[in-house]
């Protein structure tokens, strides 16, 4: 199976590197600056599962693409989605499917419009990764998993074949018969975590130690859960127990990639991760007071960084 990974950033670089490590047929679609970095240093991964350097990872740039990939693993940020689609479209042939790993949900509509719904799987990843000052991929905690599936549900042969290709490395591969439910649940958790830690500029443990911190985070979970329920995906009790457990863990150093991006002064996915939830909440006439505070804060950050 020929895999095109769009972006060799934190998650694309990590999962792509791990797949190359076990001999899978992976090519990174990169822009010129990243191509230069990879040519100079190779793809460098620092990880609790073992460091890895791939001296000359296979890369291609948009003008060199041919439509002969079976799987596109999409790992750009949401604000780069349109540009990424324009870049990788030439790599999409009759047999290609697209598996996006972005946080949030709106990108599915954009990908459907570009390639047709039948080609776009549901997907998500759980990992804490970043690019350091040397542009090396740094995995910050051991968790690492990709979950994906057919958006209409069930486990197709195609999903099974992709799972076999992605499997065998140090990350978990979870083919899911209910990927939309899992994507909504991840959005509930991620947006609560990213929104709260970004707003408070603090990890979960510090927020918990502040007056009203726990109530704020659990209130965000409730607001987003109600929006998920309107979408037909009320979070399951077992998920909520895990999510609340993670947000109520005393002393926890847990943060989200959005918080790390703010610390680094980088662009963030405010509209994709939080703004879209507010739009959905407003359309369904659900209260989103905490999400509004978070969003205003994120948009002020965006304005400040210019
Ligand atoms: N980091 C994390 O821990 C997690 C992130 N996520 C989600 O995963 C997604 C990706 O995040 P992350 O990996 O952190 O982001 P990064 O910014 O680290 O990586 C994104 C990469 O996409 C590349 N890219 C963008 N547009 C193009 C294009 N047209 N052609 C080629 N490459 C392109 C960028 O390249 P360039 O260098 O040229 O800008 C960049 O390297 C986000 O939606 C995020 O919310 C989900 C779970 C955890
Ligand atoms: C849920 C979490 C925290 C880990 O995958 C995440 O998606 C992020 O940091 O963006």
Automatic annotation (TrEMBL):
Coiled coil: none annotated. Its EC number is 1.1.1.169. Residues 178-302 form the Ketopantoate reductase C-terminal domain. It catalyses: (R)-pantoate + NADP(+) = 2-dehydropantoate + NADPH + H(+). GO terms for molecular function: 2-dehydropantoate 2-reductase activity. The keyword Lipid metabolism does not apply. GO terms for biological process: pantothenate biosynthetic process. Keywords: NADP, Oxidoreductase, Pantothenate biosynthesis. Residues 3-152 form the Ketopantoate reductase N-terminal domain. It is an enzyme of class 1 (oxidoreductase). Pfam families: ApbA (PF02558), ApbA_C (PF08546). GO terms for cellular component: cytoplasm. Transmembrane segments: none annotated. It comes from the Bacteria. SUPFAM superfamilies: 6-phosphogluconate dehydrogenase C-terminal domain-like, NAD(P)-binding Rossmann-fold domains. Pathway: Cofactor biosynthesis; (R)-pantothenate biosynthesis; (R)-pantoate from 3-methyl-2-oxobutanoate: step 2/2. Belongs to the ketopantoate reductase family. Catalyzes the NADPH-dependent reduction of ketopantoate into pantoic acid. This is 2-dehydropantoate 2-reductase. The lineage of its organism: Bacteria, Pseudomonadati, Pseudomonadota, Alphaproteobacteria, Hyphomicrobiales.
